[in-house]
Amino acid sequence: MWTFALARLAGILLAGLCLGLLVGPIWVWLLVAACLYLGWQLLNLHRLDRWLRLRSQMAPPNLGGIWADIVAQVVRLHRRKSYHKQRLVQLYRELRRSTAALPDGVIILSTQHEIVWFNRQAARLLGLKRPIDVGLRVDNLLRSPEFVRYLHGDDFSVPLAISAPMQTELYLALQVVPYGAGQSLLLVRDVTRQMRLEAMRKDFVANASHELRTPLTVISGYLDTLADDTSIDVAWAGPIRDMRAQAQRMNTIIADLLELSRLESTDGEAVREPIDVPAMLQRLQRDALARSQRPRQILLELESEDGLYGSMQELESAFTNLLVNGIKYTAAEGSVRMRWWTDDEGAYFAVIDTGIGIPAEHIPRLTERFYRVDAGRSRERGGSGLGLAIVKHALQLHGGWLEVQSVEGKGSTFICHFPPQRIFQTAERAAASA
Amino acid sequence: METSDLTHHISRRFNEDLEKVRNQVLQMGGFVEQQLHKAITALVEGDSQLGESVATDDYKVNGMEVSIDEECSRILALRAPAAGDLRVIVAIIKTITDLERIGDEGEKIGYIASRLATMERPADKYREVKHLGRQVAEMVHDALDAFARMDSLAALKTAKQDKIVDEEYESIHRQCITFMMEDPRTIRRALEIMWIVRSLERIGDHAKNICEYVIYMVHGKDIRHTSLEDVALQIDAAHAASRR
């Protein structure tokens, strides 16, 4: 088409040349032809310009030559652009609408924790107001000290559960999800139902265990009397012995259940009474050595004189549970080793046995209630199935956690990790006694 | 004056300082709110341990007041703020005093609640006191929200709640007197309850004061000791003017 435009220019100039040759001075006619061409182009340019300015109100102009093409291109470009724009707007609206309709609250926070945007559910759960709250710092409005600590901390792996501001019967789980360069999403979820169910479950377990205890006491009492009664047929001696053993087992289970529900209902942190761990472990070792059925060796390695700040009762029950477990699953010719040491990152208590070990796939689920690696085998060893759950909860109350390593057939290692803040230093102890 | 104005301040550092101290005030407010909530829960549920923990935690509120006070003096000395910024500082200094007093009243309630927990509880389980406590807690919450949002209308609305709190205080008062006349054995408990509702009523007054500082901070009008109806008219006029 450019060749066509060039041809047109050449044609006009040629016509001017011919006219000049026929009727007058060539240069005048050439000039006239060039001016005509220029004028026509200028007219087209003017019409194009006017159309571009008032595009929304005017139909595209009907221009000649190269200009028609340009107009067509502009129209096409414009159409494509408005199509994309429309699609983007639609997509954006849809996105907003879907986030607004989310059952969970969503708040977008800037780097300074200022509210950039929030959806309807977040407004409802947290009492935010639009548009006045946009640009405010979120911790100015959500002032609960726990939340502020969570927001300014750096551990967002677990959501924080708090009661909603001014609606105390409503429980919310808040979670910060960082993204981009410092921005974050704050997700708000109503967990009232879960919290209530959880509370109900805990109450149920505690109440049921308590209710079972009384009848069981009566049964064991009579069984004890029957066992000593010489007037009963000797054939009953075996069954009565079994019944006593089972009643004893049920007692243990109920005691463990009560202990567990007590641990669960304790909020926050354990008390901080100073505990002399080495002395406690020596006592545990003595008790273990007094057992009739035990592995040949029960060793104690004390590599630190330090103790812990915590609750005596809970730590002793946790350590005992681990030690008894080790003894139970280790054959008479094996050994069970207790180890206590500290370093800069915390304090550690380990029970290392050379027992039957635990298959790897069971390790993550060991601390679940009543979880058994091998139902038949562990029942005959007479556990309640709650020991490790108790250990886990007791450690949690002290800010610690349980690590389990095991090789099947070779033995297992259970390590309790305690944070350094819990360490009770011997130096302090010396100073305290002085 | 809105917060967005605050962010367009000439000196960015100054602006950040102001925002920081405002945030500290609201953090203190959040802690005081929690203390109040715990104190009321301790009373209603007869949880003596919780009540004691409220009483022993009051020193934290005092600590916050002192540090915010120092920060304000520092800003005043270093930046010599004027107009709106000065009003913010003045309002903050006054607000923290009232917050600290709310904390003190909360401490008192917590202490009495822990004592009451050992006594026999009335049949209605302190329903009226609980209701009043809720109302007062809501007032404190709304006052702090108004402070955070610089929302004078909300502040005015919250300040008006004080009247309802006063009425409720009066009615519990009467009720306690009736109980005491009916059965002298309840006198001890009723007297303790009267201390608690007295504290709650005082907290309502402090919340009202905070609302007044918010209005002062936003409009530059000191509305203490004026009737709320007059204030409402003035604020409406100011809003109409700013809209024009």
Please render the helix and strand layout as text.
The complex is a heterodimer of chains A (434) and B (244).
Chain A: H1 2-23, H2 26-53, H3 66-101, E1 105-109, E2 115-118, H4 120-126, H5 138-141, H6 145-152, E3 160-164, E4 167-179, E5 183-190, H7 192-228, H8 237-265, E6 273-275, H9 277-289, E7 297-302, E8 307-310, H10 312-328, E9 335-343, E10 346-353, H11 375-380, H12 387-397, E11 401-407, E12 411-418, E13 423-424, H13 426-433
Parallel strand pairs in A: 7-9
Antiparallel strand pairs in A: 1-2, 1-5, 3-4, 4-5, 6-8, 8-13, 9-10, 10-12, 11-12
Helix pairs in contact in A: 1-2, 7-8, 8-12, 9-10, 10-12
Chain B: H1 3-7, H2 12-45, H3 48-79, H4 83-116, H5 127-149, H6 152-182, H7 187-219, H8 228-243
What does this structure look like?
The complex is a heterodimer of chains A (434) and B (244). Chain A has 13 helices and 13 strands. Chain A is of the alpha+beta class and 434 residues long. In chain A, the strands form 3 sheets. A 5-stranded antiparallel beta sheet of chain A has the order 2-1-5-4-3, with helices on both faces. In chain A, strand 3 and strand 4 form a beta hairpin. Chain B has a single domain, classed as Up-down Bundle (Methane Monooxygenase Hydroxylase, Chain G, domain 1). In chain B, helix 5 packs parallel to helix 7 and helix 6 packs antiparallel against helix 7. Chain B has 8 helices and no strands. Helices cover 85% and strands 0% of the residues of chain B. At the A-B interface, helix 5 of A face helix 1, helix 2 and helix 5 of B.
